[in-house]
Amino acid sequence: xxxxxxxxxxxxxxxxxxxxxxxxxxxxxxxxxxxxxxxxxxxxxxxxxxxxxxxxxxxxxxxxxxxxxxxxxxxxxxxxxxxxxxxxxxxxxxxxxxxxxxxxxxxxxxxxxxxxxxxxxxxxxxxxxxxxxxxxxxxxxxxxxxxxxxxxxxxxxxxxxxxxxxxxxxxxxxxxxxxxxxxxxxxxxxxxxxxxxxxxxxxxxxxxxxxxxxxxxxxxxxxxxxxxxxxxxxxxxxxxxxxxxxxxxxxxxxxxxxxxxxxxxxxxxxxxxxxxxxxxxxxxxxxxxxxxxxxxxxxxxxxxxxxxxxxxxxxxxxxxxxxxxxxxxxxxxxxxxxxxxxxxxxxxxxxxxxxxxxxxxxxxxxxxxxxxxxxxxxxxxxxxxxxxxxxxxxxxxxxxxxxxxxxxxxxxxxxxxxxxxxxxxxxxxxxxxxxxxxxxxxxxxxxxxxxxxxxxxxxxxxxxxxxxxxxxxxxxxx
Length: 478
What we know:
The chain has two domains: about 25-405, Ammonium transporter fold, CATH 1.10.3430.10; about 430-445 and about 455-470, no CATH class. Helices cover about 60% and strands about 5% of the residues. The chain is built from 20 helices and three strands. About 50% of the residues are buried. By secondary structure, it is mainly α. It is globular and about 70 Å long. The longest helix has 29 residues, at about 250-275. The protein has a three-stranded antiparallel β-sheet with strand order 1-2-3.
């Protein structure tokens, strides 16, 4: 049992096994607990963001996926995830010294002596859950949900935990090399983005890829906006909390985060406006997320002018990267690779350019040589080493996991063509995100004599929504 007392001001004093004491400030504890909750809300935010972009018949699967993945990784993190990421071990992966959170309580955390390890473990959990939620949006409209759960469980253990150890554990090889990653440009965004690329490649193209069948409008731009709002809101805990203390460096990280997101949103919107002459809500939302991705590795290292530049450059890079999937002939339905893989990579490189030793000193503890702005030119080499290593590892290991699982009887990753026609929601979830989806199919009156519904009826929610919108009043359903 811990030997814990409290000062008159309420701060916690823990007496450790060696007889020394550790003092934990209540303000720091409260700040990280709130930041944990903020990052957690990003998980359903991703679900709403993804669901709004897809067709109505596949929208619910993304909302389900976000919470299912959260639960799976939470359990894995308890057993061995945290230990593999932050336990003692080699430069490449931790050991099982904290299996089942053994001895994870009131000792100073490996991330900061200002936090007890149990709180640090909880905060890192929400990063670990969010990452595969981002990555496996690549399952959209063609992936089976049961095998996906097996894949997520294995991916968390084999891909995420080692990368987190490399970057954030004091024993990790990238940490010791000097790679700068404040809040997860590598462990979260590059790993998820390149995993999505590998998963999309293995699943193959959706039915009708390259034809008008997939030239549909998003099912709910309102859901895209809601998801973006939750993501943007949660990112303040994502980046600000990564200072691991309520201090001036955390404040600067918050300012940098907001500035980059705003600049990114405007950049993407204006780039699309030059082509469409419309003020697209989805473009604005996509750009804001791109700016957030780009600033993630840099947030606690750069000043506000640099954050503005990072938001603009990252959003522009991600916008143009969405066109690369057509050159690669890979159906990344939600542009996860373009947004997170490329965005994280660009953010890592720009961190090497703009990292400022003055900013890191805002916490009163951290000292770095900085990046090019401080004439520390080798830092760009460290950033490139980390970015290339993480991207390649995630892509290759994800592809190998897909191949291995797909060949296990009963665990095929892709749905049948009939399921693609019906929709993932009905076939895999047995439910609809929108109650009127089935009504609209029935409204076509296209059943054959034997009761079967021909393929044309299944596209009523894709092509004929304008025609059928006035046929059924969703509120009239008995």
